[in-house]
Design a protein that fits this description.
The complex is a heterodimer of chains A (51) and B (328). With 51 residues, chain A is an alpha+beta fold. Chain A contains 2 helices and 2 strands. The radius of gyration of chain A is 17 Å and the shape is rod-shaped. In chain B, 26% of the residues lie in helices and 21% in strands. In chain B, helix 1 packs across helix 4. The longest helix of chain B is centred in the C-terminal third of the chain and has 21 residues. The mean pLDDT of chain B is 95. Strand 2 of chain A pairs antiparallel with strand 3 of chain B. The structure holds zinc ion (ZN) (3 copies).
Chain lengths: 51, 328
């Protein structure tokens, strides 16, 4: 994952940063991240076990 | 107005922040100040129709860049300092009605990357001695905006609780030659009774010395002192562990469990802290589904916590609670 920042300065001088991300397989990352917003996250349940 | 006032009795700074009286309290959802700005609607803090993750300087900061001169003069008895520092708000999502437990793992992973970036950027500032990343969740904790968000305080001093932890860890390191939390982790893994969940890189447990019934600490399995040291694989694993703990919390009694979540890592004052070990602490305020734990006489006035439950029993309950997000 690669992180990109876009910073703006508000009228009162405070900063605000938009974070955007590039995942490794950038070809279909857009499609992938949209999909993952709606699917529930199986990976965590698969890799994290109760002891 | 904000300033630092020295308490010579407890030897600690108190931050006064009188302007925070004007903060927004539970605005109706259509006036949420941290939702995206919709076309034709009132402008919020975020001038965009949508966003992924956003960080901005708090409008009502306790600590600020170019902080004003104190309202009173310093004396020998009562030193006063400018409340220099930074208070940031971290917006987890543009969706007003979500929370970490409902988010896909990729989103929490991004949040971990943002935290690491903020730790590095704020920690590199000359005046910042400690970067404190935390989340207050739920109105029981005093949260004034339900929109999912966390906060970061960049302090111009090392806060008292961290100083105490650093001292304890250093004493152990000096005497035993090893990291105290590495030792605790090893013994807890061997024992197993207080472990809540684990993956390759992180372990969640109810500490032996828990102050709150459902207190959980997440420790990195490998010795690291700060979030910025984690590899991409470890960042992902931390996101997974956070998701598991928060979902277990919500599944305990089938409601979104309020909590205070704090990240404890090394200071950023330029010193080395090889004896300190990254961890995250959760303090949920509930004792039972309908009873809150209040900090009363002993806790507030004597600093002696009374936990009317056993860590081993609560860990077992949390261990057996599924980390599935319930439907609401
Ligand atoms: Zn909102
Ligand atoms: Zn360690
Ligand atoms: Zn700690």
């Amino acid at each position: 994952m690669k992180l990109n920042k876009k910073q703006i300065i508000k009228e009162d001088g405070r900063y605000l940063i938009f974070y955007e991300f590039e995942t490794k397989d950038s070809e279909n990352s857009d499609q992938k991240s949209r999909k993952s917003e709606t699917s529930n996250s199986k990976p965590a349940e698969r890799t994290t076990k109760n002891v | 107005m904000s300033e630092l006032r020295w308490n010579p009795v407890l030897e600690e700074w108190v931050i006064t922040a009188t302007h925070r009286q004007d903060r927004t309290f539970f605005p109706p959802p259509e006036y949420c100040p941290i939702c995206p700005t919709k076309p034709g609607a009132f402008p919020t803090e975020v001038p965009a129709e949508d966003y992924d993750l956003v960080v901005f300087e708090n409008k009502f900061p306790s600590l600020r860049r170019n902080s004003p001169q104190p309202s009173v003069e310093s004396t020998e008895l009562y030193p006063v300092r400018q409340a220099e520092g930074i208070c940031e708000v971290v917006l987890y999502s543009s969706d007003h009605n979500t929370e970490l437990a409902k988010m896909p793992i990729e989103k929490i992973e991004k949040l971990v990357w943002v935290w690491a970036d903020r730790f590095e950027e704020l920690g590199s500032r000359e005046e910042v001695k400690y970067v404190f990343i935390f989340e207050n969740k739920g109105k029981e904790i005093g949260v004034t905006l339900p929109h999912p968000h966390g906060q970061i305080y960049a302090y111009p001093f090392i806060p008292p609780t961290l100083q105490r932890e650093l001292r304890g860890c250093k004493n152990h390191y000096d005497v035993k030659g090893e990291c105290l939390l590495c030792r605790i982790l090893r013994e807890e893994m061997e024992d197993g009774r207080r472990i809540v969940a684990r993956n390759n890189d992180f372990v969640a447990m109810v500490p032996f010395y828990a102050r709150y019934p459902y207190e959980v600490h997440i420790l990195c399995a490998e010795h690291h002192t700060a979030i910025s040291e984690f590899s991409p694989v470890q960042k992902r694993a931390l996101a997974e562990m956070l998701q598991v703990v928060i979902r277990k919390y919500n599944n305990l009694w089938n409601f979104s469990l309020p909590y205070i979540m704090v990240m404890h890592q090394k200071p950023t004052d330029g010193e080395e802290y090889p004896y300190y070990h990254f961890h995250i602490e959760f303090y949920p305020p509930y004792r039972t589904p309908d009873k809150l734990k209040f900090l009363a006489g002993s806790e507030a006035g004597a600093g002696a916590f009374i936990n009317d439950t056993l860590a081993e029993e609560k860990a077992q309950i949390l261990r057996e609670t599924e980390p599935r997000q319930f439907e609401d």
